[in-house]
């Protein structure tokens, strides 16, 4: 089975969202899972120009060249049995390079009308850890969550769980909260254990149905975030 993928979505090396991902990864390692940590900032790709090249079958991207890494990264997302997206909130949204990758997935969006569609239980589980400096704001994560939802849908993936972390301007703000750090490690351990329990013959790039239980309701980006004691 392919390894779980942890996509580090911030331009800031060893910043807050990298640290969140590292805590999750520690938990997964404790559960015996090897994962792939991928810092998106290390991979160059051009922004979508809306050239229209992917609009008609076979929905190819005209920017997919050997030196452009977007297709490879999107393929890693497609192949992984589980993906953690660890990202900061920048201006109520996702950081520019991550958004550029999302825009490059337009060929999947263009192709989905020709697709049979997938039941919710068949969606690849994606975990989203979003970090914000502000401690308030009902809509702090709303835009990012909507963007992720529509990015993932044509990839046959969906957000299973989120950690919406507020009041984290700096890595120090996170490290000063041992309960939050411990909860992030436990989160990784929990998903590592679930993956370890999967049969090895799970279909390529897909997780077996037991990984998806219990089924979570549709995401409501305007719903309240973590209770105050978890922030
Ligand atoms: C360009 C930029 C824009 C930001 N915009 C917001 C924002 O809209 N709301 C917020 O709460 N924090 C905002 N922040 C703070 C970051 O979300 C916060 O510091 C985050 O933990 C940084 O994570 P990182 O170190 O992984 O990049 C912004 C920070 C930067 C650098």
From TrEMBL:
Residues 206-231 are annotated as: Disordered. InterPro entries: Flavoprotein-like_sf (IPR029039), FMN_Rdtase-like_dom (IPR005025), ISF_SsuE-like (IPR051796). Residues 5-137 form the NADPH-dependent FMN reductase-like domain. It comes from the Bacteria. The keyword Flavoprotein applies. One of its GO terms (molecular function) is oxidoreductase activity. Gene3D superfamilies: 3.40.50.360. The keyword Flavoprotein applies. Keywords: Flavoprotein, FMN. This is NADPH-dependent FMN reductase.
């Amino acid at each position: 089975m392919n390894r779980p993928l942890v996509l580090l979505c911030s331009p800031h090396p060893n910043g807050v969202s990298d640290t969140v991902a590292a805590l999750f990864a520690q938990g997964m390692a404790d559960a015996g899972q090897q994962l792939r940590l991928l810092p998106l900032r290390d991979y160059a790709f051009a922004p979508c120009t809306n050239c229209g090249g992917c609009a008609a079958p076979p929905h190819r991207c005209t920017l997919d060249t050997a030196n452009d890494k977007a297709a490879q990264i999107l393929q890693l997302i497609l192949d992984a049995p589980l993906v953690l997206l660890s990202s900061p909130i920048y201006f109520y949204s996702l950081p520019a390079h991550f958004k550029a990758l999302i825009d490059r997935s337009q060929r999947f969006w263009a192709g989905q009308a020709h697709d049979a569609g997938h039941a919710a239980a068949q969606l690849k589980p994606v975990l989203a850890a979003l970090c914000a400096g502000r401690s308030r704001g009902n809509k702090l994560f709303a835009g990012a969550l909507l963007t992720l939802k529509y990015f993932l849908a044509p990839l046959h993936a969906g957000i299973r769980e989120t950690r919406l972390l507020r009041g984290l301007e700096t890595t120090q703000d996170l490290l000063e909260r041992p309960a939050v750090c411990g909860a992030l490690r436990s989160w990784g351990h929990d998903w590592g254990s679930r993956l370890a329990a999967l049969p090895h013959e799970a279909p390529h790039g897909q997780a077996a149905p037991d990984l998806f239980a219990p089924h979570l309701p549709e995401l409501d980006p305007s719903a309240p975030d973590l209770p105050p004691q978890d922030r």
